[in-house]
Write a structure and sequence with these properties.
Mean pLDDT of chain A: 90
Helix content of chain C: 40-55%
Oligomer: heterotrimer
Largest sheet of chain C: 3 strands, antiparallel
Shape of chain C: globular
Strand content of chain A: 5-15%
CATH superfamily of chain C: Cytochrome-c3 Hydrogenase, chain B
Number of helices of chain A: 6
Structural class of chain C: mainly alpha
Number of domains of chain C: 1
Shape of chain A: elongated
Number of domains of chain A: 1
Order of helices and strands of chain A: HHEHEHEHEH
Largest interface: B-C, 44 and 52 residues
Distance between the termini of chain C: 66 Å
Strand order of the largest sheet of chain C: 1-2-3
Number of helices of chain C: 16
Helix content of chain A: 25-40%
CATH topology of chain C: Cytochrome-c3 Hydrogenase, chain B
Chains: A alpha/beta (162), B alpha/beta (187), C mainly alpha (403)
Structural class of chain A: alpha/beta
Strand order of the largest sheet of chain A: 1-2-3-4
Amino acid sequence: MELSPLQRSLELAEPFVTTKLDKVLGWGRKYSIFNYPFVTACCGMEYMSAACSRYDMDRFGAGLPRFSPRQSDVLLVVGTITHKMAPVLKQVYDQMCEPKWVVAFGACTISGGPYNNYAVLQGIDQIIPVDIYIPGCPPHAEIVMDGLIKLQAKIQNQKHEV
Amino acid sequence: MSETPEVRGFRDHGSWAGPELVEALRERFDSGMLGDSAAHGEREVTIRREILPALARWLKEEQGFEMLLDLTAVDYLGKRETRFEVVAHFYSLSGNRRLRVCVPLREEAAELPSLTSLWKAADWYEREIWDLYGIRFAGHPDLRRLLLYDQFKGHPLRKDYRMKDRQPLIGPEAVRPAGAGEERAHG
Amino acid sequence: MAESVGTSPVSIRSRDLTLNMGPSHPTTHGIVRLKVSTQGEEIVDCDIEIGYLHRGFEKMCENHPWNQAVVYVDRLNYVSPIINDVGYHMAVEKLLDIEVPARGQWMRMLTSELMRICDHQTCVAASCMELGAFTAFLYLIKGRDLLWEVLEKICGARVTTSYTRIGGLAYEPYPGMKEEILDLFTDLRDINREIDKLMSDNRIFIDRTRGIGALDRETCLSYGFTGPVARAAGIEYDVRVQHPYMLYNQVDFDIPVCSNGDCYDRYLVRLNEMEQSLRIIEQCLAKLPAAGPVSVEDARYTPPPKELVYTRIEPLMNHFKHHMWGHMIAPPAGAVYHAVEGGNGELGFYLVSTGEERPWKVRCRPPCFGLTQALKEMIIGGMVSDVVPIFGSINMIGGELDR
């Protein structure tokens, strides 16, 4: 059976493991997500559920929300973004430091949701780049977990600038 | 609960004002009253806008209507001669009775005296009506937009404002003029 | 040695600090902007800017058929959506002059009260968390998840339920619902008791919330306060009691009323209302008929069941007449106002119909509008950190405030 580098080194009782820097950084970053919950609307209810005991984001290392863009790396946009709110969202995104990721949580952030009218931004990807789209109105907390795991896979596999 | 069998509507167990209030109103504000209705078990009076401040004060101070529950406007474009109608819902906590007061307004004279001196709640209700319908309120301390942003042009709840006419502040649509080729809402 | 420097007052030139709380702020629940001017820690002036979640609810409803507006109505007070659904549909039924069968009304009441518990749980949880009591948040959201599981079985969705339809309900109660809900009661009462033990006599909680944010009765009435905040201030007004709708006059329940109107009283009122809602649900479950229609049995208002639509021609035509433009339900011209007791107070719907398939106007009277407006008076004179319990206690819900 093919052993991973870690398993091999444990087998041989060696005090080191070989891997790539990208993978280690990916591993570290994916398990220490500090999310900025930019909560506006109904999806916030499912976000609360996802963050609490039953569906628990904390077991993935993503349990600590940081309410300052300077201290966070994942911008969780939860809920409808209106045209009045859009400049605020852009400013918060700009204030975050690299590396940063954006999760569009809920139908309204993906495409405006059921609100195709004068007041609502038809998807946040019109103003900021998005990494993960979590569909639903609002998405079930389990789908949020799925989205989080996909985000982690993305973080693991991407190139990390040091 | 007040027992007024005539107004006992269908599920609303006698909680609207009775005909005696309408009579008292008619006696007091004879020429200012345009009509009244008791449809669906409710009580509604339609008045001229000139008597609104006096009527509101009379309701609050002499008839015990302590609360202004709601203040909104309707745009009857194409349906009625007078385009706008401002609708106020009053509630008397002590007497447990509601009253609806409607004030029709013509488009050229879409202005009403403000009720902020009587009920503090009127402040934001009137700002919202100004924002969404463009009806002014004379004597309001600070009449500016409430729900939309200052750069927004127009009053979106008017029937001639198309639903999908966007005026974004930032984003790719912000460079495209609003209303250019936007299709109407379905139906 | 230093001279005594404290003998004569030194005048220090000072300016008010303008602090921007929001619009993306954990306390302001994401979408209210408070521009506060402070002198040190004390707030001297404040400007509240709302509208960051104005999603054009009225415009959307005006462009959709009467039955489809429920989707937008759901998203008003999104912590207790069924209460919004019930309020809107009761107003439409008033226009149409139809009455929902008893079984449908008991289910509407039951689910409304379940959602009222969810609303109060969320409000107390969020305000406790913002004061630092994270445990209360976790316990209450656990309780809310238990309720949502049952609601998901009843109506297919946890948050935005769209459960009611014109003339009744979208779905029948499922077999075993009664036992499952009754099973939950022990857990819910345990959680309430835990929160009571954790928070009600907690020195820190009392210090943060006692005497904070109270307004006198006259001011409360002037702002149009209704709901738990008004009842905490001593105003005995509950739409279920003064204007009983559905079958509320056939169940026994109490209305908790306090006298101070501060944040602590509001918390107590909400905690006790959860218990009263459990009482109502018990009685609804006891009186819920085991069989019978949940929607009015009139082909004009209730679409036929799908098994018939796919197999016979008349139900197919009936289905067509419910769902195609040009044939849908069109209430007669007129205007109605119907109010229900929402989680925050009197949730009123003013509907105007011109006899068309789409409403001419769907106005929602938001209970938290007056509360948020009064926030200015509540926080001026207090400290910046008092904004947190005050804002939490008014339970401002963005979907309802900005619509």
